[in-house]
Design a protein that fits this description.
With about 350 residues, this protein is of the alpha/beta class. Helix content is about 40%, strand content about 15%. Bound molecules: 5-S-methyl-1-O-phosphono-5-thio-D-ribulose. Pathway: Amino-acid biosynthesis; L-methionine biosynthesis via salvage pathway; L-methionine from S-methyl-5-thio-alpha-D-ribose 1-phosphate: step 1/6.
Length: about 350
């Protein structure tokens, strides 16, 4: 499939930078008004950055964790890969515990463990260099996957379409270019997407603070809506595709993504809009049969009590703050990955592309 995208225009933001002795993360708590990189010189600093959302988005936290293992290796005095493996394990476990829902985190750490096992088998191999090469490969492959998915996903979208997206799935959430936002970039570049709507994504406002900012950087006209305006917008006929990312896609196609995604899928089905999930194969978890088995992260209810640092809720009010939900596979029209597209996903269709 041809790739008509001008990446010099549409792929300029890099949220993760390896300097050779530290990891720099574009601090997403401070965007859009401050564009500052947070320097992490230790593995635990990376785990903290993941937990506190300085870096967020499923692929990005996997990549950051892989670099966190590289930092753990620098803190470890072991001479061989075999000696290093048990010494690194506590750091890997702390990285893994930083957030529970996005499978990319555990996936990236498994890749790093496998690289260490390969280094143990290789006589005289520099195991620290092997880990660094693996982290770089995870990052490079994510970018390539995003670009491939952009072209594939955009091929499903007809001319003159309006799209609605949720949360932030762009460069900030990945190695670069983005998943769902990559499809939107590609669809805008090809001229097929005529209107882009971004939901603000309460309570952390990934849509309002991050997606709207990214689209501005690219000069892509977009309209921000309150999350509660989505059904009303779809009723007007302005949206042909809802395009979202994923934190974990189960063996039957059930998909965990940012809280609010499920209600968008219900609304899309009701209004005759199509629903597309875009994610690299590192987000596919064929070991989890269905969505009810996914651990849904619940964050501090305090995230609901304030807007922009100003308290808006009376003292003493209780709140529940699950930050992901699961969209049942029956509401999904297409799952787009770099390996191909699964239309009307179910266990058989998923197995046909991903095996067991
Ligand atoms: O809590 P976040 O901001 O890490 O949640 C992010 C999302 O839900 C994204 O949609 C998902 O990770 C895909 S990012 C390419």
């Amino acid at each position: 499939m041809s790739d008509p995208i001008d990446y010099a225009r549409y792929d300029r933001i890099r949220p993760i930078r390896w300097t050779g002795d530290a990891l720099e993360l574009l601090d997403q708590r401070r965007l859009p008004f401050e564009v500052e990189y947070l320097r992490c010189a230790t593995s635990d600093a990376v785990a903290d950055a993941i937990r506190t959302l300085a870096v967020r988005g499923a692929p990005a936290i996997g990549i950051a964790a892989a670099w966190g293992v590289v930092l753990a290796a620098r803190e470890c005095a072991a001479g061989t890969a075999s000696d290093a493996a048990p010494e690194l394990e506590p750091s890997l476990r702390r990285l893994n515990a930083a957030r529970p829902t996005a499978v990319n985190l555990a996936w990236a750490l498994a890749q790093m463990r496998a690289a260490l096992v390969r280094a143990s088998a290789g006589e005289g191999m520099d195991w620290r260099a092997a880990l660094e090469a693996e982290a770089r490969a995870i990052e490079t492959e994510d970018l390539a996957a995003n670009r491939a998915m952009g072209v594939l996903g955009a091929s499903l979208i007809g001319p003159g379409s309006g799209v609605l997206t949720h949360c932030n799935t762009g460069s900030l959430a990945t190695a670069g270019f983005g998943t769902a936002l990559g499809v939107i970039r590609a669809g805008v570049a090809s001229g097929d997407i005529a209107r882009v709507y971004a939901g603000e994504t309460r309570p952390w406002q990934q849509g309002a603070r991050l997606t709207a900012w990214e689209l501005m950087q690219d000069g892509i006209p977009a309209t921000l809506i309150a999350d509660s305006a989505a059904a009303h917008l779809m009723k007007t006929g302005a949206v042909q595709w809802v395009v979202v990312g994923a934190d974990r896609i189960c063996a039957n196609g059930d998909t965990a993504n940012k809280i609010g995604t499920y209600q968008l899928a219900i609304s899309a089905r009701h209004h005759g809009a199509k629903f597309m999930v875009v994610a690299p194969s590192s987000t596919v978890d064929m070991d989890t049969a269905s969505g009810e088995l996914i651990e849904i992260e619940e964050r501090d209810p305090a995230e609901l009590f304030a807007i922009g640092g100003t308290r808006t809720v009376a003292e003493g009010v209780a709140a529940w703050n699950p930050v992901f939900d699961v969209t049942p596979h029956g509401l999904i029209d297409a799952i787009v990955t770099e390996k191909g597209i699964v239309e009307r996903p179910d266990t058989a269709a998923m197995q046909a592309l991903f095996g067991r």
